[in-house]
Write a structure and sequence with these properties.
By secondary structure, this protein is mainly β. The chain has helices at residues 8-12, 141-147; strands at residues 2-3, 28-33, 58-59, 64-65, 78-86, 93-101, 115-121, 154-159, 168-170, 183-188, 197-205, 208-210, 220-221, 229-239, 247-251, 266-270, 281-282, 285-291, 296-301, 304-305, 309-313, 319-320, 326-328, 333-343, 346-358.
C-alpha cells in the first residue's frame, strides 16, 4: 500500500525564519556550502577557500568601531576579511579569517590579546548568554555562570594569534566546545609581537542548541540544514599598545552587547551548493519509519536537478511513481529500495541496500 503525503520540505521551510529579533534587519549574510569531496583542511593555508566566491566574503567595511575611535575603517591600521562555510551532513561551521594589522599584540598570557570574538546561536533561540544580562538578578553570579553562561549560544574569544595558551577562551564552563572533536584551528603568520603583518586563521566549530557544564555527554548539537537561518556575529578587538587595555572593537552587529545577547546577532543562511558544484541530475532520498507495528515507512525525494518523473521500487515487489510516497510493508525484513528519477538532463538512480528494516 502506498499513500500520498505533503513533502516534508514544505514544513521545513517554515523553520527557516528567525524566532527572535536579530540585528541588521533585512540583511542576511551567506554561508558557503563546500562539496563533500572538497572539505577545507585545517592547516592555515587559504588555498582550500579559493573556490568560495567573493560575494561570500565579509570585510572590515561591514564592521563598525563602536568605541568611537574610528568613524570609518583605516585599512593601513587594520584590514580583515572573513568567509564562513559548511558541509551538508556535518554540524560544523568553517571559518577563514584573514587580517592585516600594523601592530599585533599577543605577548601577554591573559586576555590582553588581539582577538576575533565569535558568537553563534545555531537554533535562533535568542536570549542572554552571560550572567549580567540574565533576567533573574537574584541568582548568584557564579551560579549563573556555572549553569547558564554559553549554554544556549556560544561565545569564543579566539586569540590572534595564540602563543603559549589555548587558541580560544569559551565563555562559560563548557570549555569542551573549543576542543576536538568539537573544534579545531590552525594559524599562518610570520610576525612577532608589536610588528605588522598578515595573519591567516582557519578553524571550525560545532554550534550547540545546548552545551551544559555537565559535559558533552548531554550536549545537543545544532542541526545544520540547507537554507536554514542561524544567528552569528563577530567582533575584532585590536590592541595597539602592550601596556594599555585600550582597544578598538570592530563589530559586525550594530549592537556592542551582542557578545552576551543572542538577540543582537546577525542572520546567516546556510546556502545550497553553488551551480558549478551541482550535478545536473542526482537521485537522492531519505526515509523515516512512521509506525513499526504497521511497518509504515515514509520516503522523501531529495533529488537534485529538475525532476519530471519518479519511480520507487520498495524491494518487496511493489512500486510507486509518487514523489514522496508512504509505503506499508506486508512482511518483516530488510529491503533494497531503489529510486529512479528522470528529467531534461537525463536519468539517475539511488539504491540503499538494507537501510530499510522493518519487523
Amino acid at each position: 500500500m502506498t499513500l500520498s503525503r505533503l513533502p516534508l520540505l514544505a514544513f521545513a521551510a517554515l523553520l527557516c525564519f528567525p524566532a527572535v529579533a536579530l540585528d541588521r534587519p533585512g540583511t542576511v549574510f551567506k554561508i558557503f556550502q563546500f562539496p563533500p569531496n572538497m572539505i577545507p583542511r585545517i592547516d592555515g593555508n587559504a588555498d582550500d577557500w579559493a573556490m568560495v566566491p567573493e560575494d561570500y566574503a565579509i570585510g572590515i567595511d561591514q564592521l563598525v568601531d563602536d568605541t568611537g575611535k574610528f568613524k570609518a575603517p583605516d585599512k593601513t591600521n587594520l584590514d580583515v576579511k572573513v568567509k564562513v562555510g559548511w558541509v551538508k551532513g556535518l554540524n560544523r561551521l568553517y571559518f577563514l579569517y584573514e587580517a592585516y594589522d600594523n601592530y599585533w599584540d599577543f605577548s601577554h598570557p591573559d586576555l590582553h590579546n588581539d582577538t576575533f570574538e565569535l558568537v553563534v546561536d545555531g537554533d535562533l533561540s535568542g536570549g542572554p548568554l552571560i550572567p549580567q544580562f540574565m533576567p533573574n538578578k537574584e541568582l548568584d553570579p557564579m551560579d549563573a555562570r556555572l549553569s547558564l553562561q554559553g549554554v544556549q549560544a556560544q561565545n569564543y574569544h579566539i586569540m590572534t594569534p595564540a602563543v603559549g595558551k589555548d587558541w580560544a577562551m569559551a565563555w562559560g564552563c563548557n570549555s569542551y566546545v573549543k576542543e576536538l572533536p568539537y573544534a579545531n584551528a590552525a594559524y599562518n603568520y610570520n610576525f612577532k609581537p608589536g610588528e605588522a603583518g598578515k595573519l591567516i586563521l582557519e578553524f571550525w566549530i560545532t554550534p550547540f542548541d545546548y552545551a551544559g557544564c555537565e559535559g558533552p555527554q548531554r550536549a545537543v548539537e545544532s542541526v545544520l540544514t540547507e537554507n536554514k537561518l542561524i544567528g552569528l556575529s563577530w567582533a575584532v578587538m585590536d590592541y595597539d599598545d602592550v601596556n594599555s587595555n585600550a582597544h578598538t572593537f570592530w563589530n559586525l552587529s550594530r549592537k556592542h552587547t551582542m557578545y552576551g545577547k543572542a538577540d543582537e546577532l546577525v542572520a546567516f543562511r546556510l546556502m545550497p551548493l553553488e551551480p558549478q558544484f551541482q550535478k545536473a541530475i542526482d537521485a537522492q532520498w531519505s526515509f523515516k519509519i512512521l509506525d513499526m507495528n504497521r511497518r509504515l515507512v515514509a520516503f522523501e525525494d531529495q533529488s537534485v536537478g529538475k525532476i519530471t518523473s519518479w519511480k520507487w521500487d520498495f524491494g518487496d515487489g511493489t512500486v510507486s511513481t509518487e514523489q514522496h510516497p508512504i509505503h506499508a510493508y506486508q512482511k518483516a525484513g530488510q529491503y533494497i529500495v531503489i529510486l529512479d528519477v528522470e528529467g531534461p538532463a537525463g536519468k539517475s538512480r539511488r539504491a540503499k541496500i538494507w537501510d530499510v528494516v522493518v519487523r
